[in-house]
């Protein structure tokens, strides 16, 4: 049987190649849009490093009745908060929603670690954090964030809906995988293959989707800049400190 470490080395290679491809695509985007693209390149590159370290067994340490993998922690704690925070950002909601979503995502990921290495009440608390956190995410994304997105240009609202659905679906599948894994129903090879596939889908697939739609994020700015010129007049300017005599 193929060793899980081999699976992770292959996955790390896919991440490395994907990061290079994404970097090349990002450089072909207009300068104003590259700032949205480069963070995804970084997330994919970091995933490659983290999975490679995990495959090599570097950074493994014991906690309570289990072990944690430093490489896995690196890639997960970087990727999950960023991806969900970006989805919240696309909605056009305020910064507090973006911060709230990223914090909730970190809490859910921490819950998985608790459920993995502890027993008894702490393990139950970790599992509850995952399940309750996901329900809260659903409420936030289909509630206030959807309301905020409805006030955006139609193209951006559609971009938000697709981003929301992709991230929630992929994360929901990951949660189902986590529950099955915690229950010990997967052998080590199957667990490694399925996890790497799901993680690649969430990181690389999400990045590719954003790259294909990133122009949407510039639509609002462009429409505002053109608003004052549609009638042949200059857009109004406000001079700080100006008053009425």
| Assembly classification | single chain
Outline the biggest β-sheet.
Answer: 2 strands, antiparallel
Order of helices and strands: HHEEHHHHHHH
**Helix and strand composition category:** mainly alpha
Mean pLDDT: 88
User: Termini, distance in Å?
Assistant: 84 Å
The counted number of beta strands is 2
The order of strands across the largest sheet is 1-2
DSSP helix fraction: over 70%
Please state the overall shape, judged from the principal axes of the Cα atoms.
Answer: globular
Number of helices: 9
Poorly predicted segments: 221-245
Beta strand % = under 5%
Radius of gyration: 21 Å
Question: Overview of this structure, please?
Answer:
With 245 residues, the protein is mostly helical. It is built from nine helices and two strands. The radius of gyration is 21 Å and the shape is globular.
Keywords:
245 residues, mainly alpha, two-stranded antiparallel ribbon, 76% helix, disordered C terminus
Any chance you could write out the topology, listing elements then pairs?
Blueprint: H1 4-27, H2 31-56, E1 60-63, E2 66-69, H3 70-90, H4 95-117, H5 121-142, H6 144-149, H7 154-182, H8 188-213, H9 219-227
Antiparallel strand pairs: 1-2
Helix pairs in contact: 1-2, 1-8, 2-3, 2-8, 3-4, 3-7, 4-5, 5-7, 7-8
In short:
With 245 residues, the chain is mostly helical. The chain is built from nine helices and two strands; from the N terminus they run ααββααααααα.
